Amino acid sequence: MTWRSPLALVREALRGQRAREKDLRNLASNLPYEGLEKGKQPNRYFPGNAIKTTKYTLLLFIPMNLFEQFHRLANIYFVGLAILNFVPVVNAFQPEVALIPICVILCLTALKDAWEDFRRYQSDRKLNNTPCLIYSRKEKQFVERRWKDVRVGDFVRVVCNEIVPADLLLLHTSDPSGVCHIETSNLDGETNLKLRRTMSGLCISHPVFEPESFNSVVVCEKPNNNLNHFKCYAEKPDKEKVGAGIESLLLRGCTVRNTDHAVGFVVYAGHETKSMLNNNGPRYKRSKLERKLNINVFFCVILLFTMCLIGALGHFLWLQALPVVPPFLVPDSNGHLDSPSLSGFYMFFTMIILLQVLIPISLYVSIELVKIGQIFFITNDIDLYDEDTDSRVQCKALNITEDLGQIEYIFSDKTGTLTENKMVFRRCSIMGTEYPHKENAIRLAVLEEPESEEDIIFDHVPQPPNTRWSLDTEDTNPEDTQHHHGSWRKSKVAGTAQSNVAFSSPLETEVIPDRKLLQQISRAESSSSSSQKIDPYLDFFLALAICNTVVVSMATAQRQRTSESLHSRQTNNPLNTLSNLVKKPGSLHRIFTFWQRKPKRNRTISEDSVTEGDDFNPPVKTEEPGDINGLQTCSLYAPSQCNMPATTSDNLSYEAESPDEAALVYAAKAYGFTLLARTHDSVTVRLPSGEDLVFEVLDTLTFDPIRKRMSILVRHPITKKFVLYTKGADYAIMELLGTPYAEHLSGSQKNIAADTQHHLDCYAKEGLRTLCFTKKIVSDKMYESWLVNRRRALAAIDNREELVMDTAVQLETNLSLLGATGIEDRLQESVPDTIVALREAGIQVWVLTGDKPETAVNIGYACRLLEDEDLVINMSCKNKLTCTSILDCTLEEVRRYSEDPRNVDTTQDISLVIDGRTLTMALSSDLQDRFVDLAKRCRSVLCCRVTPLQKSRVVKVVREKLKVMTLAVGDGANDVNMIQAADIGIGISGQEGMQAVMASDFAISRFRHLKKLLLVHGHWCYTRLANMIIYFFYKNVAYVNLLFWYQFFCGFSGTAMIDYWLMIFFNLFFTSVPPIMFGIMDNDVSAEMLLGVPELYRMGQGAGAYKFSTFWVSMLDAFYQSLVCFFIPYLAYQDSDIDVFTFGTPLNTISLFTILLHLSIEIKAWTVIHWVIILGSVVLYFIVTLAYSGLCITCNPPSNPYWILQSQMADPMFYLICILTTVVALLPRYIFHVLRNSIAPSPLAQARHLDRLDPSTKSELIKEWRSFRGGGQVKRSRLSTPPSPTLETPVDIHLQSPISSDVMGDEFILNVITENYQRPLHT
């Protein structure tokens, strides 16, 4: 290695820094430079792939850890006092002794940090030494190296089921179409497969890839933490640029699936990879209680300085009052004595050292230990465990558990949070005709019924599943019907418990076709010639099948996971005969018959789920020609296709990124339009006739939250025309429509858009999620000109997203409407009960969703966010002037209602529904205050059509304007901004991945868990910690004041009457564990009572238990108890000849008894642990003090504590003083507790009284108490309709009849809307 000057090293470092900070990076292959020294490598400025997440090194651990700990002002304060004690003129203790407390605290914290860092080191070493394959030019092959050896510019080969070691630009795969499937569960928790494609036009060396032939320069953006975006292009030697995006990037930490091998070019390595840039570690949030705690610490500092000033002034006056110099004031070596004023100045610092315990040194450590204990109990609560997903609550932010008990506002997403996010195909509208799918509704109604014991008994004999449907109405075999009894519910249970594939439960995958629609498709099939498949009904289902990103895999290419258990291989039986599910009085019977498929081996979960294991047996075909069990073949299928081998659609597995896409693909499959295969440039669909159509995929215009739609551009295999299929939200599609689908249709059929919109409105009122589907024929000329712009946009680096979106918008015009779908997303279990309980707990619940207002309102009533008796204000405005007037007149009416003396005993049942456009105007700076004022007077708020940024904005505005504690809960990536903006963010580990969980402070698996998490654990955590902190301040003040009162009798000389070691042991050992136990285990009210009476949660909201008044009352009580504990022994021993330590030992003992018995009064629920710790502290005190008094003969010369406690315990006066003083000290607090709980008991005290009753009596008294305290509504009153504002744009404000009488009852809804509003239709 050649020597280099320091100046050259500095220049090289600066060049490297500039190269890393550039917006664009030019990366070249390392192969031509293999074996050369580092200075000649083209990518030498970029970091290697080795990672280091440790904070410390072995040599620098002590200084770095001390530097880290000294970020806490409390540690600096106590170290400064310990150093000050080494100054002779101000020291109060032996200097070495004064160092012990802070050294113990620093050492314990350092040990904890060292253990955590050692675990990080072990993890880093294991990861860095993971083997991988890197191409070597010398050996002309891929050779095994370690992850830490990977560098930017290398070529890495990744095989199936292997984790990607760095961020790789995909160049080659074993798939001839250049497709690679990856699983990103390590990054975002999503288990569904994602498709990645090779960069087209770069590598033509198929089937074997030669890295040495790669001679392009890769230009990519600077590393960032956005997992969903990547901008890059490769520049060939002829200067041609080939663009690439995230679809060609394999991220570090992903797992390759269903692909034999893939080869990639390393663009980011080590700490510059996207996964490492997202690894920010745990977030630090300061809780509300911690902020109050810091204020009280500041008050204690003021109190300390006041007491020190009194001591300094007292010492000055005492010295001045002396007639002569006493013999115990020893002059210095020069015979000089300090003046009284200088001695008083020195005494100020001596008093700070003496009374330093007034600032609780161990409080912060105790709080950390208490929170760890609280988190342990939360995470191990069996009620918060979800058996279906095998997950429990996760606490990711360790320092805000107490904030769970102070929440006042909850902001919730709807889809996947309140609902299951299991999309079920319910209805569709094609060419203006609605198909209700009544038979499918019957199936879902049966699945919705609760299971009985007989229904969930699993039958070990596999039953033949059925997927295809017939229009023939033949009788089914009665024996077969009896044999399959209850199979629906079995399928439901098994699919829920065992499915490892997203959106693959029988509820989602099985669809019973609509009879009328089947006949229509049959006619379309027969009428369409073999050369032109352009019927609108066929196009509609083709759009359902191909306009998506669903990944198709065969049963022979399933994923393998090492965590697979044998239990997950149980056989599950999907759909059996329809007579099973409608075999009830009054139900439809023998409507459909259908094909049956014989059972196959190694089937799991449901017909399209993935079997995961180490080996796979091919499906065994056992079907015989002819009819089976008396069933006839389906008339929709050609006879030649009936007996084809079962290696096609039966073996398919669909993995979708969203449940909507999965539901639509399964719906298309139910009608015979089966998605068979998907590659980056083709998609194959099987028609009902059995014919396979292979569409060439020219481009996919992916979904984005601005366009609210996605499109796929294909070349039709028969007509050879360019066809654009588009699906999206109705409001995003309807404005892009051109002419009707076919102008040759009759006049009544030209109103397709209006009829479809009518159906969409009805779907929305039923709470269904709606999507529109369109088709567009693109001319050759238009496609060629558009393709030029598209390629230019894809190859761009700057503003790439905007340019790509512009090209999509350019093509998505003049669309022809095909139809629309209605998909049901069911409520999660116990969501209505949870919302009612949260509202009774004084928490306002807001729902922020992107759904249509009609859909959101329907779900709002279903989940009891909106009640039948509520007055619902619908706000939908087109301009700001209208919004301002509506806000003003509505707010005026609400205020007038609250100020009316006739409404004193009434409650306002007002709910607000507002759409995204109106919300944007309401959140503007001039209307913000009025909107917040109106919203806070509403019982619930429902925001519709809102974007992720609007969600976070709403949370921030409410939090800042109302100064309230907020909680946001969501399950998807669109909820991350909202979750991070709230005081507490809760992620639900649902079916949309784990982005919300990764950004959250707490993670739960079901919305219903929020009830116990807040009402029980939140209440416990807050009250426990608040009471422990107040007790800690009391304990320190009560003990320190003993030393302060003694100064009045020792000339304010800074002398202590208690031995220094015993003073240290008192706070470090004797009284440290009881308050920690108090903070972890005390239960003021049982969980059953907190859940039964949600109103008890209100005790923690606002100021809660930790009030300034409570703090100062405890401080006054501490002063009183210290006065009693000092002056009763002082008066008892007055005029005696006892020494100073003989006087101090009873004081120390009395103080221990008083402090521990004070805690005993505060403890609400005694357990064996409480008794052991309290009594153990007393026993430990006497053992340590007796041993110390017996062994320390010269520990503290000239006054030694030898045999003092032994002598005291032989004197009856000692016991009398201890008992009398303790009783007098605690009597006021005890009397206060007795009187308060007897005369004016708090709700918590009443709840504790009810807890002690027998269950039946307790239940009745709870009902009476809740009704008495306002659990039931006293009286309700209606708002009068606000007057209509006079505006240029007329506003329609009217009372309206219910949207759906069977859902909403007889309530009135106040609609405050613009003139173009379509009145909801009665259904």
From TrEMBL:
List of residues binding Mg(2+): D413, T415, D971, D975
GO MF, one annotated term: magnesium ion binding
PROSITE patterns xref list: ATPASE_E1_E2
Residue stretches making up the P-type ATPase C-terminal domain: 997-1241
Keyword Endoplasmic reticulum part of the UniProt annotation: yes
Residues reported to bind ATP: D413, K414, T415, E661, F703, K727, R769, T849, G850, D851, R945, K951, N974, D975
EC number from the UniProt entry: 7.6.2.1
Entries under Pfam families matching the protein: Cation_ATPase, PhoLip_ATPase_C, PhoLip_ATPase_N
P-type ATPase N-terminal domain location: 42-97
Catalytic activity: ATP + H2O + phospholipidSide 1 = ADP + phosphate + phospholipidSide 2; a beta-D-glucosyl-(1<->1')-N-acylsphing-4-enine(out) + ATP + H2O = a beta-D-glucosyl-(1<->1')-N-acylsphing-4-enine(in) + ADP + phosphate + H(+)
Sequence similarity: Belongs to the cation transport ATPase (P-type) (TC 3.A.3) family. Type IV subfamily.
Protein name per the record: Phospholipid-transporting ATPase
Gene name linked to the record: atp10b
